[in-house]
Amino acid sequence: MKQRILMGVLLAVLFLIPFKIGGHVFTYLTLALALIGFYEFSSIIKIRKFGTKWFVGSLGVILLFSPLLFGGTSQFQIRVLLALVIFFITTTIFNKGFSIEKAGTVLIGVLYLGFGFESLAEARIEKGVIWTFVVLLTIWSTDSGAYFIGKKFGKHKLAAAISPNKTIEGATGGIITALVIGFALHSILDAYQSYVHALAITLVVSIAGQVGDLVESGLKRHYGVKDSGNIFPGHGGVLDRLDSWIFVFLGLKLIGVL
């Protein structure tokens, strides 16, 4: 437990320094997290490391960051996606061990991690340090509220086949906790346009974060994996720690907040 706490503090510091600096420093950090996440994802779905498909997938993740790193456009991102689709589908023709299902799974991983972490970096650039920090604290408060309230009052399973320990009471408690923290932070930091805006953003963040956690749990359960990686001693891998973040910032981009 002591090692876990110390590692958690160290990870927080290593993240918050680039986060405060912002700009390309934070963007490169998020890109590194995306690539580590894709490495873990590849391990989970059993794609050969440093093989052609792994390399192309990693390159795809990098190119999805092009608007932030190289001044690329959304049209360039669309071309990258089309190229990836063509490559992975074509690969199934010449490789009997690489099915359409596996090709689709790799593509999902590239999109999920590339756009997810790119959206986090975009939020820091477009919305600023306070707004993005409040969103991250809302995710944390959701996780904490869901854990403690679920542990105390949880009776009805939320998704028993995927994550047996999660309950409807815990999920509801996570949302309520997030709303309390979200309104408090808005009152102190004036993070949002209004309390109505704070309510809407907080609900999206809290719900999307919990869905993201369930999605990653479902992925690991499907492939019989306990942790996505061990890069963070006592905390697992990037996907274990940041699964909620990915879905949250994808969700915020989807509804046009980013």
From TrEMBL:
Root EC class: transferase
Keywords: Cell membrane, Lipid biosynthesis, Lipid metabolism, Membrane, Nucleotidyltransferase, Phospholipid biosynthesis, Phospholipid metabolism, Transferase, Transmembrane, Transmembrane helix
EC number: 2.7.7.41
InterPro entries for the chain: PC_trans (IPR000374)
Intracellular or extracellular location(s): Cell membrane
Database matches in PROSITE patterns: CDS (PS01315)
Listed transmembrane segments: 6-39, 51-70, 76-94, 106-123, 129-149, 170-189
Record GO terms (molecular function): phosphatidate cytidylyltransferase activity
Pathway participation: Phospholipid metabolism; CDP-diacylglycerol biosynthesis; CDP-diacylglycerol from sn-glycerol 3-phosphate: step 3/3; Lipid metabolism
Top-level taxon of the source organism: Bacteria
GO cellular component: plasma membrane
Primary location group: membrane
GO biological process terms held by the UniProt record: CDP-diacylglycerol biosynthetic process
Membrane topology, from the record: Multi-pass membrane protein
Pfam assignment, any one: CTP_transf_1
Catalysed transformations (reactions): a 1,2-diacyl-sn-glycero-3-phosphate + CTP + H(+) = a CDP-1,2-diacyl-sn-glycerol + diphosphate
Annotated family: Belongs to the CDS family.
Protein name per the record: Phosphatidate cytidylyltransferase
